[in-house]
Amino acid sequence: MRWLRHSLGIAICWFIIVGLGLAQGSASGKTPAGAADAAYIAKALSAAPPGVAKGAGVARIDKDGKMQTLRESKNGFTCLVMAGNIMCADANSMAFFDAVAKKQAPPTKLGLAYMLRGDQGASNTDPSSPKKTADNHWVVTGPHLMIVGAGVKDLGLPDSAEADPSKPYLMWPNTPYAHAMIPVSGGSAHATAATAGSETKDQKK
């Protein structure tokens, strides 16, 4: 999607993203860095269901473009906040979107990413389109998960440019970057539970 294209273009790491800037110290009257990190972590984890968020890592890019690992991953998933979107993805799916960003041949391995907060929208026909136009078939999808890999084209999902985001569909059909978009119900509830679980852990530390 367009925000992944921009953020993954920052560096070659599988998890290169646009994140929140570091907060200044309390001497300046701003939120202490520790509290800012805790808030960011809770927000990032809200992209995934509790079972995934529990062991997921959290990453962020600082204002100088350097990647920070705020929490190590124990299950292969890493969560992040980027340009208003919140996502939690495995290594295979991020390798896929990295290929999109670099306009390279995508990997064929199955990958999974969660966006239980929904997204800000993207063109369904042009992976490089930065914004909505009259003819680029812009689509905004609510809480969903994404499946990438060579096998998604055989799932029999609708592949029309005019996607119905309330039902499963193939994004970027007829391109090497086609991937499955699977809307899920109860996305907000899952995200709230994940956030609450993370906040509870932070309070115990």
Describe the protein.
The chain has helices spanning 2-8, 33-45, 50-53, 91-102, 187-204, and strands at residues 57-61, 67-71, 77-82, 85-90, 111-115, 122-123, 138-139, 144-148, 169-171, 179-183. The chain is α+β, with helices and mostly antiparallel strands. The chain has one domain. The protein has an eight-stranded mixed β-sheet with strand order 2-1-3-4-5-8-10-9, sandwiched between helices. The protein has a two-stranded antiparallel sheet with strand order 6-7. It is globular.
Task: Describe the protein's topology.
Blueprint: H1 2-8, H2 33-45, H3 50-53, E1 57-61, E2 67-71, E3 77-82, E4 85-90, H4 91-102, E5 111-115, E6 122-123, E7 138-139, E8 144-148, E9 169-171, E10 179-183, H5 187-204
Parallel strand pairs: 1-3
Antiparallel strand pairs: 1-2, 3-4, 4-5, 5-8, 6-7, 8-10, 9-10
Q: How is this structure best summarized?
A:
This protein has 205 residues and is α+β, with helices and mostly antiparallel strands. The protein has helices at 2-8, 33-45, 50-53, 91-102, 187-204, and strands at 57-61, 67-71, 77-82, 85-90, 111-115, 122-123, 138-139, 144-148, 169-171, 179-183.
From the helix content, strand content and strand pairing, which structural class follows? alpha+beta
The overall pLDDT average reads: 79
Largest sheet: 8 strands, mixed
- Low-pLDDT ranges: 6-31, 187-205
Number of strands: 10
SSE arrangement, N to C: HHHEEEEHEEEEEEH
First CA to last CA: what distance? 36 Å
**Which range best describes the helical content: under 10%, 10-25%, 25-40%, 40-55%, 55-70% or over 70%?**
25-40%
Question: How much strand content do the residues show?
Answer: 15-25%
Q: Quickly count the helices.
A: 5
Rounded Rg: 17 Å
Strand order of the largest sheet: 2-1-3-4-5-8-10-9
Morphology call: globular
What's the domain count?
Answer: 1
